[in-house]
Amino acid sequence: MDRVRSRQILLACASGLLLPLCFPKFDLGLLAWVVLIPLHLALDQCSRRRAFWIGCLTGLIGFTGIMAWVVTAMTTYGKVPLSISYAILLLLTAYLGLYVGLYGLAVVWLREIIPRYGIFFAPCFWVALELLRTYFLSGLPWCLLGYSQYRELDLIQIADHTGVYGVSFLIVLVNLALAELLLWLMPFFRGFHPAKLPWELVTTAATLMVLSWFYSSSVLTGETLKRPRTSLTVGVVQPNIEQAVKWDIAYRDETMQRFDRLTAMLGTSTDLVVWPEAATPFILEREKEYQLQLIAWAERAKAPILLGSPALRFYPDRRPYLLNSAYLLATDGTLLGRYDKHHLVPFGEYIPLKSSLLFFLDKLVEGIGDFEAGPGATILSFTPKSLGSGNPAGLRPVKFGVAICYEVIFPDLVRRFAANGAEFLVSITNDGWFGPSSAPAQHFSMVVFRSVENHLAFARAANTGISGFVDPFGRIMQATPLFTEQVLQATIPVRQSRTFYSYYGDVFAYACVIICALLCLYGYFRTKEPAHGTTAITPA
Questions:
Q1: 363 a catalytic residue
Q2: Are 177 and 292 part of one and the same domain?
Q3: What is the pLDDT of residue 537?
Q4: Are 40 and 164 part of one and the same domain?
């Protein structure tokens, strides 16, 4: 028994150690198609309780590797002691590991309630748990399994129907089919019990892979044959302002001079200039002198500037609060619109339960601001000058949506911009908090899926990188390295078409939730069969 348990623990650890390699910076995306095989082998002939803890072990190790950057953010910029930072990291990854633990429990449970065929529904449980992770306790859908495939464009176009969750489903299904095939080929893992070839599962996985590839290839091929009817030129500015001095008043003028110099490098051919999140080291609405500078720079660029800056507001009792906002400033100084960040970062922009349970936390962590959430997916618009080149009658407003920092990891939040009429998307962020970790690359990879899901181009401006452009089908057009002063310029397509996902959202993921709920009801009400090896005694 000890030997079996040791083998199970080693297999669970193997999946956990390999999981971070599937994501940036390692970027071994193909590994994702086999990374869960050791876990599934470990779950063979497990009790439910052991399956849960084996899954938790895999998740704890895997998410610790994926999210090690949390320590950098807390110690370097939050001034949290190193020991406490590691404790918080382990607490966070233990929580995330629970989702993998519940998946392990589900796999064993499905084998019990529907022998041979119950395992078909295991990917539904994985997707249902990813959806739960997206929303529960404010949500943390960081590095969902599907994101590992952000470079496999000829496979992930199914996300325009299923979202990233459909790609996760497919990865888990393939892992499961290969694991079942290995268990059939290697009777040792089944304790020499007879097993049947899992041809139905293998066939299903192979069929869905082929269909996904065929659909994705047809989408990409069809798009290659089309030329976008409308396009515009966008410039993004990456100032590389050091986080330690970003809000130091002594460096304010130097910061603004850097923005001035970099914006001037874009020339006058851009239709829109994009600065990062919280670009101005002051509250824009209260600094008239700097407002005049910004208007002059927009006039020189002959293009509106989209820039991040806090907005100061007051409660009815005159207590102040902040909004993390993006302003669209026209060349004549007119404010064309403002978007206020809707989904705030817990413990970064606000403290959950601060008035009760976590009242002490503001004394522990420096740099946590008191922000309030904005109203939701606000659409901004402007009239690009390039649309009227040679034909003033062609001028028209173009609509776009802005996701600020953390918001871009939430599929449904970005989808709402597309549903509300956005023709392209912008992400502004300050990933300087992450330092030289894998987090900026992980963050950027999620932008690819937001483009694929909605078939809208993305322009991204990040303070320290990664800045760049992604086309409507997930191709990374340009991307900057980390910690460099740089400007990029690209012509991106403007589209008014909508995808199934844009219209209907996470239908696929919720369908998986419904299937899981029906299976739970079936398992609850199902008549228990007599234990094997017992014989009913009929009274004489």
A1: no
A2: no
A3: 43
A4: yes
